[in-house]
């Protein structure tokens, strides 16, 4: 069956949300990030990009390139709220939606062309999103997720594109290899040293040669370069939560021990989020007393995979829950409301040094296990 997949992407989402609350920012270069020069750019408007500013750039450099920009600190509470508004609008209209990140969505409209027309439906959905959320959004309609995502970049800002069935390879052919999802700096450098600069040239390399060059991922890139992508649109609520819990060998009331367990479990959950390239919008803490009474409490929070944010909320929930002064036999931490996305340790205030520190810690955990590096309070393994 011919597939119809739409990729929606909210344009300069953080900047657009800021402009909702302050119309004076319209048409001006806007840069969102940390206040200090050692912070990084989280998002910037198209007006700022003309000066060479881009996401993840050090704020110090951004200020030199665009000194006249409006510099704002981020507001994750507001971003999470507006993301949920758009999510609700889309889910009300479309049965199969994948929320790829806080501002990106894939829609599977396969079969709808027989009844309503995918082009007309998507255009009307875009109009409704803009009207009800006030946020600009771009989209591309194609036969698979790969082509729709690439084409959305060409549709921006606040535009729309449709790549007809059968035209996928021709559309991708003239684009540079860096436009292909899955090609990073190392792969790009390797291919360019071979003289491969466009997706057309990449598509002409035989699959066996790509396999020898890049292994299994090389075969995937070869197929994508030819416009083929069978990956399904996966409803973002399919995996509802990530959690860890610990049942103690002996019931305990030792607050130092319990605090360490809470830290250890929360760090493990946060690492699991980042490893799966996900963010969470809710955290739950569970306690089980010695008499087997089980209590839990949760709170909604801005989308995050940040250790510090999750630890602060976990400790706050634990303090509200543990009010009996009775022996505990189990403690658990769970995160839910999952969406795809990447998390810089503190998107708006953390320094480059801290970002690199946490990235290094995650690399150690990925290689040697989640307990290889941790906060000192969570490193006791004195199981009771």
Characterization of the model:
This protein is 40% helix and 21% strand. With 384 residues, the chain is α+β, with helices and mostly antiparallel strands. The strands form three sheets. Strands 5-6-1-7-8 form a five-stranded mixed sheet, sandwiched between helices. Strands 9, 10, 11, 12 and 13 form a five-stranded antiparallel sheet that branches. The longest helix is centred in the last third of the chain and has 21 residues, at 255-275. The protein is globular and about 70 Å long. This is DNA polymerase IV.
Largest sheet: 5 strands, mixed
Shape-level CATH architecture of the largest domain: 2-Layer Sandwich
**How is the largest sheet built, in terms of strand order?**
5-6-1-7-8
Class from secondary-structure proportions:
alpha+beta
Total DSSP helices: 14
Mean pLDDT figure: 86
Low-confidence stretches: 344-348
From the spread of the alpha carbons, the general shape counts as globular
Which sequence of SSEs, written as H and E, runs from N to C?
EHEEHHEHEEHEHEHHHHHEHEEHEEH
CATH H-level name of the largest domain... which superfamily? Answer: Reverse transcriptase/Diguanylate cyclase domain
Estimate nothing, just give the exact number of structural domains. Answer: 3
CATH class of the largest domain: Alpha Beta
Pfam families: IMS, IMS_C
Family: Belongs to the DNA polymerase type-Y family.
EC number: 2.7.7.7
Catalytic activity: DNA(n) + a 2'-deoxyribonucleoside 5'-triphosphate = DNA(n+1) + diphosphate
